[in-house]
Specification:
By secondary structure, this protein is an alpha+beta fold. It folds into 2 domains: 116 residues, no CATH class; 79 residues, Phosphatidylinositol 3-kinase Catalytic Subunit, Chain A, domain 1 (Ubiquitin-like (UB roll)), CATH 3.10.20. It contains 8 helices and 4 strands; from the N terminus they run H-H-H-H-H-H-H-E-H-E-E-E. A 4-stranded antiparallel β-sheet has the order 1-4-2-3, with no helix packed on it. Strand 2 and strand 3 form a beta hairpin. Helix 3 crosses helix 4.
Amino acid sequence: MAGRVAPLEHDLPEHLAGQWEQLMVLKWHEVIYRLTEDGLPEPAAAVRDFLLFMMLKGVENDRSCRLSVPAHIDEVWHSVLVDPVLYMSLSRIVGIEPVIPYEPMGEYDSDEAKMRRWQAALDKFAELYGRPYTHNYCGGQVAARHQDNYVLTQPPTRCGPARPDAMVEDLKYGVRLAEGIPVVKQRLLFCGTELENCRTVSDYDMQDGAIIHLILILRRYT
């Protein structure tokens, strides 16, 4: 149903099932609506991954932002933060009060430290739930939704160090950290080809020092 969090695709660990039921009582429809307006594909699935990640932070008692989120979860997090009552309720349910700490930029972290935090989150998520993030965040869907709205081309951007198996989504998250541009507002092109979030760096044969072009996606108002 529209406005509802996507249903779980696997059973939760028994000790987290009660938390999930409490989280489902909260009102997520406005968050999903905002994400839809911002052009995030499958917002209900993204919110599901976000909530699973918040439960992981509670299990790990992560009050110092040791675990760093992928781009689609960060987009949801931004949307939830604008509703303090909802955010405080979420924090209480997962057991981190008064609120779950949020470190938006990590500007003083090295690239290596950021990568370690992203990988730690991925490993812990898979360890707790037995699977990785399930949201299908594929750039082609955003491109179709914003067709003909590409109005501003930035100069070439040099990406930070990335492993061959890093996702394009991770590159966009790095651009966000460096430039402050939301992931859903980015198109990245390499050698004339638009990069899809659901593919890896090695899929495009990008080498160290590769230069990509960033195109901003601006919503059309009439």
